[in-house]
Known about the structure:
single chain; alpha/beta; seven-stranded mixed sheet; 23 helices; 20 strands
Amino acid sequence: MDKKEALTFHLFLLPHASPEDVRGVVPVLLHGDAAFAGQGVVYETMQLAKVPDFDVGGTIHVIVNNQIGFTTNPIHSRSTAYCSDLGKAFGCPIFLCNGDDPLAVSTALETAVEWRQEWGGDVIIEMVCYRRNGHNELDQPMFTQPKLYSAISKHPTSLQIFEKRLLEDGTLTQEEVDEIKQFTLDSYENDFEASKTYEKKEDDWLSSKWSGFHSPQQMSRVRPTGVEKDMLQKIGIQAGSVPKDFVLHRQMAKIFKSRREMAEAGTGIDWGLAEALAFGSLLIEGNHVRITGQDCQRGTFSHRHAVVKDQKTEEEYTPLNFITKKMDPSVPKDQMSGPDTQAGFTCRNSILSEFAILGFELGYSLENPNSLVLWEAQFGDFVNGAQIIIDQFISSGEDKWRRQSGLVMLLPHGYDGQGAEHSSCRFERFLQGIDEDPHFVPEFNRDSRMQIQKHNWQVVNCTTPANYFHVLRRQIHRDFRKPLIVVSPKNLLRHKRCVSSLEEMGPGTEFKRVMDETDPAINENPQQVEKLVFCSGQIYYELLSEREKRGLENVALVRLEQIAPFAFDRIAQNCEKYPNAEVIWAQQEPKNMGAYSYVNPRIMTATREINKNEKRARYVGRPVSAAPATGMVKAHLAEYQEIMDGVFGDPQKDVFAD
Length: 658
């Protein structure tokens, strides 16, 4: 379904395609009976059938009803008479056919296709059959279904039944039957033998649109991601503009006016505008941008406003689709890239599902590498609803199937006293899932660096709008694709100090994996520094404010913007620069969460292998906990103060120190 939607977009410019265009590609899903009835993602996926920018013109669902789920009988695997009864909730036509009758199956499929093409809706075919062996050829089904498998053992195969029928009605002779059977067996045998000597090619994983992209074994150089200032200003002004007769909400009009002023001045660029600049610049370069999520048009925290509503008519307007002339997606990318043309931008609120939507966007990202595809969680905490997609497909998809994806996951994260379900995207899970050896330092020479290429995904926690701008553009300005997990901010979206300038996004600039100490009084006097504090994300601004309040100039703050893959080289450089400093890792999360367990062994490796002087980071953060965060404001503030004291106070009194 997801790849079909992407294919249709690039062929026919959704949502303006005609019904005939949309139905030119037919998605077919194959289900088991127990899975169709029992897996919630089936309902979630079918709920997408008529949702704009998810509607694929109807899906044909084929259920292979083996009348058993592994060892579980139907009476225990569902409450309904038929495994296909879920379709009744959506008014789908359901065709039941006998799996032992190939002509009935064929007729059901033909009817389903005709219905789908005529009405553009989902169709279900329930093929009632059986499983001749156990769950596999070695499994013993008689343990759990003795009566059923006693009957199956005496039942002729579908081939035998159909062969007898064709012979009896004179359709085929025995010689013709034998010839067809032998031809089929020979083709299987020949392919099996050929597989033994098959030699894979580096580009075997590529479809035509992926031509020229590199595998993890092929070098792809680091590229600058900056954009000309004039172009950024043009995009920024448009991101805050609507047609003259469009009636904006009064508060929305102020937000858009502020955007235009920021773009014109080139300073004070906030998070929302920096994102719009990244999206807009990619669009002008001919790259389709698509972002979905439960509240992504406005943004959960009212920062994006990529789609606005007329207060009188509720008509939608998407400013980034009107930067310049929008081209048909079927036009070749080299013809679409230019200052006077742009690709299409899709920003669509989704149904309240993580599993189905993230899976849909993953598939969408596989169709065309020249598309930036993003999914945003309402809160990062809710990403656990999509854990199956993450573990089975995003984390390991390239390793298992040699299929690259540049999917971006935006996961709002930050400890602001909002409780256990609205504070943490649990990014320690993503750090645990990266296939990186903590005891090995890779090559970091700029001209030969392949660290990101060799690993399965990236995890970033940016602290400036400019760095966020660059990491989004970096996803496209590469010869390969990797999933990107963005630990995105909440209170930094409007933080007065979390702003950037257009100069930081201009020509020659790029994403910074690590941001060093910025105070000249500290940076230029490294011998006086007694504490070197590594951190990531929102806590940096809290530490910075506390340091200024205490008037300290002996504590250096260094930010890991890219947590994984780990910047061994930059960490070693900072440890070497401040030779007298104690190394500290500070985080908001509990000790058994967050990045501590990931970064500490890598800090030790970096200092040992590169500097020949191993250092271990002292931990400062919340104590171990089963819940990610407290829901009591007083407890939250007390924990916050203990973290500040742990960094800037006496280590002997720090209850969270190792």
